[in-house]
Amino acid sequence: MSHWFFQKNDKTIGPLTDYELRTLYRRKELTDETKVKQEENGTWVPLKDSPIFQALHHTTDARTSSAKNTNHHPHEKNGAQHLGLGDVFSDIFKKHPKSDSEKVFIAGTIYTTPKEEEIASSWTRPFLFSRVFFALAITYLLLLACTYIFSNSNTIPGLMVIGSFAVPFSVLVLFFEINAPRNISFFDVLKMFFIGGVAALVATLILYDLIPVGKLNYFNAFLVGIIEETGKMVIVALFIVALKPKYILNGLLIGAAVGAGFASFESLGYAFNYSIEAAAVFKNLHFAGDTMLNIIFSRGWQSIGGHVVWAAISGAALMIAMGSDPKLKMRHIFSGKFLSLFIIPIGLHFLWDCPWNPLPQIAFKQILLIVVVWIVIFYLINKGLRQISAKKGAKA
Questions:
Q1: Cα torsion at 136, 138, 140, 143 (round to 10°)?
Q2: Model-level pTM?
Q3: Among 382, 165, 368, which Cα is nearest to 264's?
Q4: C-alpha dihedral, 197 to 172 to 360 to 232, nearest 10°
Q5: What is the pLDDT of residues 248-278, one digit of tens each?
Q6: To bridge 263 with a disulfide, which of 168, 258, 313, 328 should be the other Cys (CB 3.0-4.6 Å)?
């Protein structure tokens, strides 16, 4: 891979990859006359005389041609970008070069964040989340083989960790891909996932100390919904203050990151505790192992409609309440705009935990609530896309 350097304001900037150099050229931050050199000990030449110059124009022409001949970004509806259920799954089974995955993961840097007027054309349909899930699923199956076929107990902790993290983390990658502004880096997402997820657990435990909750009847299930969604929301709000985002889609991603971390560590705890309790009560290690696997599987598939998306709604609600204000303030949290949306994750959490449970044999309640929450999520995604279109229109 080439490493490029360029001169700007009497300073040498680099090293940059070919892709990063092309991005800067496309954004007109580099001109044909900009001095560049290949490798640190190379010779300075105008960009137009460098080996990469023809490739820059070839890439630009190819991108323009591709944009005209394909519809790789979500389709338009009423003049704005729109994401439907089909758009989420349409690219999963398509073959993508490795560079497509790399472009997703390098989003959010000063070199790869598109300008506001370029957002729609730079946004592709999500696909990488499925690759991440398959990679984690394969890892889980290999650990399962080590544990149960070769009777290696050393792999049990890895089995619990990967099993608990696989689905929440994959859903988080989906939200990362859906973040059309491409203005939050994956490193920031990882910080929110790990630090934010555990911080949300701490905030929730503090609230539980202040508001004790007993057996999960209807009233206590409602308290659980308020406590846990408030704990996550507080941490989401802190990250919004720190990152200073300005789009609804940013709020969805920040909330999903905190919620995914919360869900992963909570599921890991349940898998560990239930297996230990089963071993202690029934004196049967095989039964304890089955209990662990059942917890991992049930909480895994159900997490697509749990903490990840509930916290995502809270993040979007905070951004909607902020409106055009550059900074989140307490008055936004107590505004009608926020509370009217924040009641949704609280209500969904309450219904999830309450005793009402028709047709438990087929997990009817969980499936129903997953469908409902994703209807809300798609509404918020498309509201976020309309926000971007409105900003672009105002600039035009």
A1: -130
A2: 0.83
A3: 165
A4: 30
A5: 999 999 999 999 999 999 999 999 999 999 9
A6: 168
